[in-house]
Design brief:
Elements lengths: L1 E2 L6 E9 L4 H20 L5 E9 L3 H13 L6 E2 L4 H14 L3 E3 L15 E3 L8 H10 L4 E7 L2 H16 L3 E8 L5 H12 L5 E5 L2 H13 L8 E4 L1 H4 L6 H6 L5 E5 L5 H12 L10 H18 L9 E3 L12 E3 L2 H10 L1 E4 L2 E6 L2 E2 L3 E8 L2 E9 L3 E3 L42 E7 L8 E4 L6 E4 L1 H12 L6 E7 L9 H9 L5 E2 L14 E2 L7 E7 L17 H22 L10 H14 L12 H30 L10 H7 L3 E4 L4 H8 L7 E4 L2 H10 L8 E5 H10 L4 E9 L6 E2 L5 H13 L2 H12 L24 H33 L5 H13 L13 H16 L8 H17 L1
Parallel strand pairs: 2-3, 2-4, 4-5, 5-6, 7-8, 7-9, 9-10, 10-11, 20-23, 20-24, 27-28, 27-29
Antiparallel strand pairs: 1-2, 11-17, 12-13, 14-15, 15-16, 17-18, 18-19, 21-22, 24-31, 25-31, 26-29, 26-30
Length: 912
């Protein structure tokens, strides 16, 4: 510790390690003295003064020995710098042992941890804070792949894991990483660029220092890679030092996007810039953000030093805990820890913005997104941790984090174009896109692969291939491709569709085109485009013989349960009417045989409304009204159904349900190599031993014709496109039956992460929405499907009308009959029970019931008139009936007495 004469200011020695020949070191060397002068001019009453000990070094070991020399000889209590990460690492180790805080305003690599090194303080931004901003830019322009090129140093490699993690969050794939050493010559850079040029990805993120970046972009320009179709993004290591790289280098970076920390405008910043220009500085020394951070670091350190109490004459002491592995005679700072703690608490408005250390490093705020145009930097937007991308700062906080390119101003891209690069292209002089084609016999309308006898190249036709070629034609760029046949079959040389897709996963081919069904388990190994054709799995079975030749077809309109129920209802209705009419209607009387015949005759004669019996009881009329309505509906329905059967051919399947196949142990077939086998086994629970595979439509026909009992199958399961082609040829013998099992349609398969998937999907939408093109392709390959009118086929489980359809009618007639019986019996009991009870009071209940039955069987003396009569004409009959009713029971015990009464009533009625 020193004092400054009369003013008795305490001088606190501080080390400063810089590379004065670097852009960062030269600017810091100019800004730091200005910061000390400005700080103490603004705080003249402070009792401490920083006393700088500047050392110039440009290598790692030099920085370490310089730090030792400053601590042991100059007894510094804090060290600012050095600016490079590797140099800072060694200096940090020395400062840790001497308990001297190492304050860096330029070592941005996240490999230097402020939490693991408590005496290391970073007064600049951590490089990892820009990783999410870069990923947001890539996401905003819809790019799905990127290449990382970085400097092969601790500074360069430190950011890469953070970038990869952020890209992964946005589902962006890092296709390749390239590293360049600091001493790479032009030849090595060009070789690396040549590798990049032969790759498909055209979005390139560059992270390196300005010295290597200058050479890199000059060579990229020479290689023709700063041109249309490329997208270049640079990190703040280059973006913050563009002015120092010169006009020639900036000219080679036309259209490059960059990201760098945002420096908010302030009056204090403007005053500093004017002062910078007015004072004498080398014209080659240009102001940059590291100068602002160095300036703010001095202010923060001066504030922290002022908070420390300086009571001892010496601020250093010998390190008594030194061991043989340490440098000799290293000293410990008494106030180094207090200075560190003071720095961590210091907050103020600096030139670079808010100075606020969080966990030992400067807190991130916002980043500028710049675009290099005509050797100048243009700000096209900003990125913040809360809002994401935005055109302007200071706007109200957004509801959601933005990764939308509309929140940025339109940039100028390499090649001086406004068109957004696709992010990928067919590699220059690279391999063509390898397209795998499933080759199988049969179903050629969808895909047919033959070999040219002269060139030996595959000749491909079919609906699927035409859709693929139309899709390629819609793309805004050419996709050179090579067709590679892949045999599908059940023999040893053939594979399956799943094996074809696995070749895509293994990168033996780049894509697969054909009648490939999109399935969930397949999407785990490849990426599918949107479907170009809808599909499902259905069952094909034989058609039953024409039932019009059946002599018993008249029984078919009604099911057996409906026949039985209808017959029972006829008989029950006849019995109810007989019961209601028996006592008062002579036509329902007679011998037992005659009465049984009357019941059946009356019941079934109602069917054709030909009954001749007159009904006298109103309850009977009520029952008949309901029953005649039911009979009307039954007869009309029967007539309509029978007419349909006799005049319209009904196509009925031999099997209508999958469960019938499993219950009977029948064999079923499927298309060779398709996914249908897994569906039958895993979803429909078929025994695998009951499955047989076939490759062509003729084999399908032969197997179905034989049947399950003769070495064939009872049903064939297949995808819609195969089933329709099969039925086109054999529509008179087979039909679809049972349920259908939905799939996600047919699509094209690509390697996972391929950027072609998004472009192909959009192109497929354009093709499928073009009705003219789709109709032309369908007419070319699938026109025969209309001949059999597949859409008009009806799969019928049963032609007969069921009991359930008429259940409501039978319930209504049953309720009506029951109510009528109850009413009639109630009246009968009320009128005869008293008489039976008075005549035979001592008889048993059974005897009384027998007497009631006898009375019921006797013809009632009160028959209802058949025709209408007036009141005067009926009075004699009424009086006669009254006299008869008053006759003692003994006089009416015989049949003759009853007959006399009936004759009297009959004569009276005839007189009327």
């Amino acid at each position: 510790m020193k004092t400054s004469g009369a003013e008795t200011k305490t001088l606190v020695p501080v080390g400063l390690i810089l590379d004065l020949n670097s852009p960062v070191g030269s600017v810091a060397n100019a800004c730091i003295p200005m910061a000390i002068s400005d700080f103490y001019a603004a705080h003249p009453n402070y009792r401490t003064r920083l006393f700088l000990h500047l050392r110039d070094t440009d290598d790692v070991l030099g920085a370490a020995f310089t730090a030792l020399e400053l601590i042991d000889k100059e007894e510094v209590n804090a060290i600012m710098g050095p600016e490079r990460t590797m140099r800072a690492r060694f200096v940090i180790d020395v400062g840790e042992r001497a308990q001297v805080p190492i304050i860096s305003f330029s070592a941005t690599s996240p490999s230097l941890s402020t939490t693991q090194n408590p005496f290391f303080i970073r007064t600049c931004l951590n490089d990892s804070s820009q990783a999410k901003a870069i990923a947001s830019i890539v996401q905003a322009y819809g790019w799905h792949e990127t290449i990382l090129i970085y400097e092969d140093t601790e500074y360069g490699s430190g950011l890469i894991p953070y970038l990869a993690d952020e890209f992964q969050q946005f589902d962006i794939r890092v296709t390749c990483r390239f590293s360049l050493s600091l001493n790479s010559d032009n030849l090595r850079i060009l070789k690396m660029l040549n590798k990049v040029m032969h790759m498909q990805t055209r979005v390139i993120v560059v992270h390196m220092t300005s010295s290597l970046g200058s050479k890199f972009f000059l060579n990229a320009k020479e290689a023709g890679m700063i041109s249309e179709g490329y997208a270049w993004i640079i990190t703040d290591g280059l973006s913050s030092l563009l002015d120092h790289m010169g006009a020639k280098v900036m000219g080679s970076m036309q259209g490059v996007l960059g990201i760098r920390p945002h420096i908010p405008h302030s009056k204090r910043l403007e005053n500093f810039k004017r002062k910078w220009k007015s004072e004498i500085h080398s014209k080659s020394t240009k102001l940059n953000i590291f100068g602002f951070w160095a300036y703010d670091t001095v202010w923060a350190l001066a504030k922290a030093v002022e908070m420390v109490r300086h009571e001892s004459c010496s601020l250093m002491e010998q390190n008594c805990r030194r061991n043989i592995s340490q440098f000799p005679y290293i000293k410990l700072s008494k106030i180094g820890r207090m200075i560190r703690n003071g720095l961590l608490k210091t907050k103020f408005k600096g030139l670079s913005g808010d100075f606020n250390l969080v966990k030992g490093q400067l807190k991130s705020s916002a980043f500028e997104i710049i675009n290099v145009v005509d050797k100048e930097e243009k700000v096209i937007g900003y990125w913040t941790t809360r809002n994401g991308l935005t055109r302007e700062l200071g706007k109200p906080e957004k509801a959601a984090y933005s990764t939308c390119m509309d929140d940025l101003k339109p940039p100028t891209w390499p090649g001086n174009t406004k068109a957004i690069p696709r992010g990928w292209t067919t590699p220059v002089n690279g391999k063509k896109l390898r397209i795998g084609l499933p080759v199988k016999p049969g179903f050629d309308a969808y895909l047919k692969v033959e070999q040219d006898p002269y060139t030996k190249e595959p000749i491909v036709t079919g609906f699927c291939f035409d859709v693929f070629m139309e899709t390629l034609a819609v793309l805004p760029f050419a996709v050179p491709h090579k067709l590679i046949p892949f045999t599908i079959g059940s023999n040893h040389s053939g594979g399956t569709y799943d094996e074809l897709l696995y070749q895509v996963k293994l990168q033996n081919i780049d894509a697969a085109v054909g009648d490939i069904t999109i399935l969930a388990n397949r999407s785990r190994i490849v990426d599918f485009t949107l479907p170009y054709l809808q599909s499902h799995v259905s069952m094909v079975v034989k058609i039953k013989d024409d039932e019009r030749k059946n002599m018993w077809i008249f029984l078919k309109p009604l099911s057996w349960d409906l026949w039985l129920t209808t017959g029972a209802a006829f008989i029950c209705t006849g019995l109810v009417v007989w019961f209601l009419e028996h006592r008062i209607n002579n036509e329902f009387r007679g011998s037992p045989q005659q009465q049984v015949g009357t019941v059946f005759w009356f019941s079934f004669s109602i069917l054709v409304f030909a009954h001749r019996e007159k009904i006298m009881n109103n309850l009977s009329r009520f029952v008949l009204i309901i029953w005649i309505f039911v009979v009307l509906i039954l007869t009309q329905s029967y007539t309509a159904s029978l007419a349909s059967m006799l005049t319209v051919q009904r196509l009925q399947p031999t099997v209508v349900d999958v469960n019938d196949l499993k219950k009977n142990g029948d064999f079923v077939g499927y298309e060779t190599g398709s996914f249908v086998k897994d569906l039958l086994v895993k979803q429909l629970s078929f025994d695998e031993s009951k499955l047989r595979n076939y490759g062509t439509a003729d084999e399908f026909d032969e197997a179905l014709s034989k049947g399950s009992q003769n070495g064939g199958v009872s049903a064939i399961f297949g995808a819609r496109h195969c089933v329709e082609l099969f039925l086109t040829k054999y529509c008179d013998k087979y039909m679809t039956a049972g349920a259908t099992y939905k799939t996600n349609g047919l699509g094209f398969a690509f390697q996972q992460g391929s950027p072609l998937v998004a472009y192909m999907s959009r192109a497929i939408l354009s093709v499928t929405e073009n009705k003219v093109k789709m109709d032309a392709m369908e007419q070319k390959y699938l026109s025969q499907q209309n001949a059999c009118q597949l859409d008009q086929r009806t799969t019928i489980s049963s032609d007969s009308l069921s009991l359930y359809s008429f259940g409501g009618l039978f319930i209504i007639t049953a309720v009506a009959s029951a109510c009528s019986l109850i009413i009639y019996l109630s009246k009968f009991l009320l009128s005869h029970w008293t008489a039976v009870q008075s005549v035979h009071p001592d008889n048993s209940a059974w005897s009384k019931i027998s007497e009631l039955v006898k009375r019921f069987d006797h013809q009632s003396p009160y028959p209802e008139p058949v025709t209408d009569v007036n009141a005067t004409s009926t009075s004699p009959s009424v009086e006669a009936l009254a006299d008869a009713e008053n006759t003692p029971s003994s006089s009416r015990t015989s049949n003759e007495g009853a007959d006399n009464v009936v004759d009297s009533i009959t004569r009276s009625s005839s007189n009327v």
